[in-house]
Amino acid sequence: MPRRTPRNAPDRVRTPDRFPGFLKTASICALIAGLLSPLSQAATAPEASAAEAAAADHCGNQCSDILPPGQNGNATLAQILANQAFGSMPEHASDQLGPYANLAKGYSGLTNATINNFFNDASFGVPSDQVASTLKPAGRSDVTIVRDKKTGVPHITGTTRYGTEFGAGYAAAQDRLWLMDVFRHVGRGQLTSFAGGAPSNQGLEQEFYRHAPYTEADLQAQIDNAVAAAGDRGKQALADVNAYIDGINSYIDASDSGRYFPGEYVLTGHKDSITNAGKIEHFKPTDLVALASVIGALFGSGGGGEVNNALSLLAAQEKYGVAEGTKLWESFRERNDPEAVVTLHDKSFPYATKPDDPQGEALPDAGSVTEEQLVHDRTGSASGSAASTASTTAARTAMSSAKRGMSNALVVSGEYTASGHPVAVFGPQTGYFAPQLLLLQEIQGPGISARGASFAGLSMYVELGRGQDYSWSATTSGQDIIDTYAVELCQDDYHYLYRGTCTAMEKVEQKNAWKPTTADSTPAGSYTMRVWRTKYGPVTHRATVGGKKVAYTTLRSSFMHEADSIIGFQMLNDPDYVKGPEDFQEAVQHINYTFNWFYVDSEHTAYYNSGDNPVRATGVDAEFPVWARSAYEWRGWDPATNTAQYTPPSAHPNSIDQDYYISWNNKQAKDYTTAPWGDGSVHRGNLLENRVKKLVAAGGVTRASLVKAMADAGLADLRAEDVLPDLLKVVNSSTVTDSTAAAAVSKLQAWISAGAKRTETSAGSKTYADADAIRILDAWWPLLVKAEFEPGLGSELYAAMTNNLPIDESPSAAHGPTGSHAGSSFQYGWWSYVDKDIRAVLGESVQGPLDRKYCGGGSLSACRDILISTLKEAAGKTAAQVYPGDDQCSAGDQWCADSIVQRTLGGIKHSRISWQNRPTYQQVVEFTSHR
């Protein structure tokens, strides 16, 4: 019997995973045997002499990294069929998944000497005895791709700039061609036509088309404008892009003629496995802009949600009146909460603060808001209920301010380390996919010297990694660079007043159609996505304001400017540019994505918050829609180019040589308002802050101790560590006499005493220690939040507030911006509200309290009754009720419900791993010297 792998439903992207069982085992074996010969890429023999001399490396063998599941993200048809039938893996497809997973139970005994049991050696070059293969792509003499035996990471060395970038493109296509092709289609809103019409594919292309409804001319204009604005560096960037694309296309041609291209092209109907008929389209520069628009929307575009904010404010004012309702709303918004954990200590950087006298607000009339329809002319499977649900979810995600945050950083100054050199453990939390969105590489050539991770299809430079004597990384920051404008309609629903003139909206459409394939059996269907664009951005909603018909639009400072950031990444890779922390800060100032950037070398640490932060008109409140009139536009805004006056670099949170830095998408600094809700007294950033602060106070920090702090925080349940103790104070304020409640309290207290971790009893047991306590809290949290707040808020306001901020994001939660089985957890939730309210009821000091006491109306005994009654209800819920099962797990399987799944974006499937809340790509670095 073949070993059957459970069908994986990818996180939004649905590509080859629907064909298990479509061939019988015997026919699979026959087909594999027939395909193996033509589908094996020509091997290159290892040559010890081929390991090019490594560039200057000041890390002293103390740089490490990891990126699961593996470097190889391409698989031939034969390899895919073998994986589906027998679970076999292509070489280097999964060899980083095991070490990554093992840290969850292996970190407690970690030493500097054992770090690379869980990470890769990230030194420059490949020792001669570790060379697995050497390749001169397309027979070129000016570039060599050496791959190491352990991980298969490409080490690209060029003697010319063109050859170096050609090699980078060739290597990227070797490792991620199918994935790159998928995401260039996502960026154009053409995924369903390319990969199939599964509802998840429909939802994904709809989500991103709302963010970036670009035409081909728009994509080309971005390139032209970015090159023109950046002088010689812009010209070099364009030359690099063209060389990189030449390398990609060279591999496409070679793999096509050699018949070792990714097998997904056959399974989706683009190629014929017998005749080789069909075509893999060449890449072009605009494809890279389309890719960049996806990455920018996913991780680097803070803001939005102003319409939701307005609706919740109006609901608060309706219930409590304008003054009291506004006070309530502001207390839940926590724009500048004094108890919030911050990355920069004792420094203020005012941005998007609440104006004393708000001007230009355009709040909708009650009941008038309707979401702008995106999808039209549905046929076939596009008109079913699953498709409709996917569209609803995509719209909600696209219009929320709760963007994917993810990523963390722990950086300690040399003053507090054992060696006297700074230490960093940092990386992006980009989710878990197969193949992974990121890829590893080393690039050495004229003007380039770096190793690290890059997004597939954008790897002409290392985007997160290390140079010769410095390293850098980023976390998503989320400051508000998106504003919502109310454009007054005139003539009809598709004309609006622009500076006094009735102006036609621009219609942008994308028509998609699909039919069943081996990879995706979704029945045939089609639809048209239609966006109406204005000078103030795409239309998202319709409403009336004071009886006037308006369209709400979203204007993003990076709209039409995704290509601009290439210059910053080019600088980061240039050893002649980055020679210290000041140069690093200047480089990342050229990146318009909203990121927190961190830097270390052997002597210094640094931080800078990037993004084009628009200067708003006096009195404009970034939280709410404003009228689309000159008085309320961004200062210096030019609608023809979507450029404006931006806050100067000195106004962005920045620092050099602070004692330590932590970031887990928390607040950057005092007075610096971020767009997502939830920057309050309890944030997952506290999990890092508490541990790193303790290490720094003790001194002698090492790479191992900082990794242990990260890993320990990555297994903690934020609610259990920072909120549950106060909840139990209320419960235990008098003797608990109910036996069910008392037993639950005992289990919860024991879990807290054990460290409040979600961790296996032993490695591979697939059973949690303190499983009952975890189940009880998972069941209790939504019950207690609702019972605590809904009576005081009322059902309508409570629902409106949950639209601004979901109440929970536990590892098993199948809601929120990351979905289920995604690792990243505890970013968005009502933990601060519960914490502040419970402390207030207990009579403890609360800075920045809520507008009133909610639990039991402020009565300790009434609050206790609420908590005990909901606790009893939670304790009575079975595991099957708390963890109802999904496409990955059977009902009641607690470990599986939390587990991390490498969501299939191609044909290769991987095993689930135990939950960890940590970066996907991660570096551990400590430089020993400097140039």
Number of strands: 30
The biggest sheet, with number of strands, parallel, antiparallel or mixed sense and barrel status, is: 10 strands, mixed
User: What's the arrangement of strands in the largest beta sheet?
Assistant: 3-4-5-12-13-14-15-23-24-26
Secondary-structure class? alpha+beta
Name the poorly predicted regions: 1-40, 42-52
Q: What is the average per-residue confidence, as pLDDT, rounded to a whole number?
A: 92
Provide the gyration radius in Å. Answer: 27 Å
Number of helices: 26
The percent of residues in helical segments reads: 25-40%
Spatial shape: globular
How far the N terminus sits from the C terminus, by CA atoms, comes to: 60 Å
- Which percent band covers the strand fraction? 15-25%
Overview of this protein structure:
By secondary structure, this protein is of the alpha+beta class. 34% of the residues lie in helices and 17% in strands. The protein has 26 helices and 30 strands. It has a ten-stranded mixed sheet, covered by helices on one side. Strands 7, 8, 16, 17, 18, 19, 20, 21, 22 and 25 form a ten-stranded mixed sheet that branches. α7 crosses α8 (231-258) and α11 runs antiparallel to α22. It is globular. The N and C termini lie far apart (60 Å).
Summarize the structure.
This protein has 26 helices and 30 strands. With 931 residues, it is an alpha+beta fold. The strands form five sheets. The chain has a ten-stranded mixed sheet, with helices on one face.
